[in-house]
Design goal:
This protein is α/β, with parallel strands linked by helices. Helix content is 36%, strand content 22%. The chain folds into two domains: 131 residues, Rossmann fold (3-Layer(aba) Sandwich), CATH 3.40.50; 197 residues, Dihydrodipicolinate Reductase, domain 2. The protein is globular. It starts with 5 loop residues before the first strand and ends with a strand.
Length: 386
């Protein structure tokens, strides 16, 4: 019988966790997958059990650790998980993904994929060996008008890309600049500033990788080499970074990410300049895409009213009702679950947009991007090849 519904499990994301809840809500939007198992917290069993019971899971499928979950779910004869969602701190991604890949499960993992490029290479190789789908949730590639921007570039409307300016500005870690005793106590609670949990980078790893992947998704260009300055302001990890980048088509551009930019919340902005025109997209105004063709007035394209092609197919609500972060996640999951259903049903999954979600290889490239930025900054902003 043809499969029309998937079963999934989740590692991380208790009821009080932000991103874990976003994943569950996004998956639920299209109704193609049902949560059946989880290890929502291995350190807080009360929160773990509360989350599992809240979603009506069988007690036997609320696991105390992810290894037991991977083994027990792999042994199930009926209702076996089809994929697992990993939304835990960065330091755990590699081990958890490896455990589930080893049992032959399809995987969706938060970014960054892992700590090192060697780990990333191992996960990519294991996913290929097991023949599974491995997605990485670079959220902003799921936005409707980001897909419209990709289509515009692909169709050659703005010509050849000659320059790219991209930034992601936040202020939520501005408290890290305060060295007073009171602030120090509060700062200790920020796990992202701890290398044990975040790895070698905070700001670049957290939001700089979103710039790199969103630019790649829109333009199809990859960073060939870069020169970077990472500022730590006396902390163990970076709070701000500025990068000069060179793409594989020879064009140059600048990336800037900062989490101490007071007055900014989630200010991701992508500007792509071509020989015939330019496009600009802002995450805080996601339903609009600015298009300027050489010699013509600037146009503001609106989601729904001016969406075409694949973007139009993903237009979920009437224009004027803003779509946001959860819907972008849902678009990524829709592509992933569609592809997985095709795979399980033995149907081809080879259309132009059939695999329109970030993959393990994209996650690996993000880790290499982090490593190159850190290396460049530590060596006096020298050029580093990716």
């Amino acid at each position: 019988m043809k499969r029309t519904k998937l079963f999934y499990g989740q590692v991380g994301g208790t009821l009080n966790a932000f991103i874990g809840d976003v994943h569950r809500k996004a998956i639920a939007i299209d109704g193609q997958a049902q949560l059946v198992a989880g290890c929502f917290s291995s350190s807080n069993q009360k929160a773990n059990a509360e989350c599992g019971r809240h979603y009506g899971l069988e007690e036997s499928r609320i696991y105390t650790d992810y290894k037991a979950m991977a083994e027990a779910e792999a042994a199930r004869k009926e209702g076996r998980m089809d994929f697992v969602v990993i939304c835990t701190p960065n330091s755990t991604h590699f081990d958890i993904a490896k455990a589930f890949l080893g049992q032959g499960f399809n995987v969706v993992c938060e970014k960054p994929l892992c700590f090192t490029s060697q780990q990333g290479e191992e996960l990519c190789a294991l996913a290929k060996e097991k023949g599974v789908l491995f997605g990485v949730t670079y959220t902003y590639t799921g936005y409707n008008m980001v897909k419209q921007a990709k289509q515009i570039v692909k169709e050659g409307l703005i010509g050849d890309v000659v320059d790219i300016k991209a930034e992601y500005l936040q202020d939520w870690l501005a408290g890290q600049l305060d060295k007073s005793p009171e602030a120090e106590q509060q700062n200790l609670a920020v796990w992202r500033m701890d290398p044990r949990f975040s790895g070698i980078s905070n700001c670049v790893g957290d939001i700089g990788t979103h710039i790199e992947e969103t630019v790649r998704y829109i333009t199809g260009l990859q960073v060939k080499r870069l020169s970077a300055v990472l500022d730590k302001f006396g902390r163990k990890l970076d709070l701000s970074a500025n990068m000069l980048v060179e793409f594989d088509n020879g064009a140059h551009g600048t990336f800037s990410c900062c989490q101490v930019a007071i007055g900014y919340y989630n200010g991701l902005k992508i500007r792509v300049f071509g020989t015939k025109g330019a496009i600009e997209w802002e995450q805080e105004h996601p339903d609009f895409l600015k298009l300027t063709l050489k010699g013509q007035p600037t146009q503001i394209l609106t989601r729904g009213a001016h969406s075409t092609g694949h973007a139009l197919a993903l237009n979920r609500i009437p224009c004027g009702h803003p779509e946001g972060l959860t819907m972008a996640f849902a678009n990524i999951y829709k592509a992933y679950t569609n592809a997985l259903l095709d795979k399980l049903n033995g149907e081809p999954c080879d259309g132009e947009w059939a695999l329109d979600f970030p993959k393990a290889e994209d996650g690996l490239r993000g880790v290499k991007f982090i490593e190159a930025c850190v290396e460049s900054s530590e060596k006096g902003s020298v050029w580093v090849n990716l």
